[in-house]
């Protein structure tokens, strides 16, 4: 058993024990091809929820803020899980190349377009990165909505929407503002699904 599979087993045992965990729309994650999973972010539990929801459907990697890697033990674990550290203000060319390499090697890349946690029912503006990596990596984007109070023994739902293709932008020269607009459109789908989950429509 790999370290990754061992950790996922622990995560699944945790979510099964302490939450009423439900996954909807897992069939919307392509089993192959360049893929980004874009999710809302309200709690430190979110990466665990997404990892458990995807489980064995795809091999995954994720982007994590570089501050998480300052702790030696945490850095060791994150590196073993192939989490990619990123400077959120200035990603750097090597980081961008590494992310694109993972996408092209058919890892499903998990991203949180807001770039930070936004508590309650509010959402932050989406950053340009999800659009940039999807277009440069020629990847479809699977909108992922996490809905939970995050209280122990409460419901935790992970909903995967239909993949979004950005193929129409592949040959266009896009500005940062263009990427932000596209990212916000993706975030809009996530928000809509959040409201539907809140209203019991999904």
Q: How does the SSE layout of this entry go?
A:
Elements: H1 3-18, E1 20-24, E2 35-39, H2 46-54, E3 60-65, H3 72-80, E4 84-86, H4 93-104, E5 108-111, H5 129-136, E6 140-148, E7 155-160, H6 176-199
Parallel strand pairs: 1-7, 2-5, 2-6, 3-4, 3-5
Antiparallel strand pairs: 6-7
Helix pairs in contact: 1-2, 5-6
Q: What is the H-and-E element order?
A: HEEHEHEHEHEEH
Strand numbers in spatial order across the main sheet: 1-7-6-2-5-3-4
| Main beta-sheet strand count, sense and barrel state | 7 strands, mixed
Give the structural class. alpha/beta
- The total beta strand count reads 7
The amount of beta strand, in percent, is 15-25%
Question: Termini separation (Å)?
Answer: 35 Å
Helix content: 25-40%
Radius of gyration using CA atoms only: 16 Å
Q: Identify low-pLDDT runs.
A: none
Number of DSSP helices? 6
Mean pLDDT: 94
- Principal-axis shape equals globular
What can you tell me about this protein's structure?
The protein has 202 residues and is of the alpha/beta class. It is built from 6 helices and 7 strands. It has a 7-stranded mixed β-sheet, with helices on both faces. Strand 3, helix 3 (72-80) and strand 4 form a beta-alpha-beta unit. Helix 1 packs across helix 2 (46-54) and helix 5 (129-136) crosses helix 6. It starts with a helix and ends with a helix. The model has no long low-confidence stretch (mean pLDDT 94).
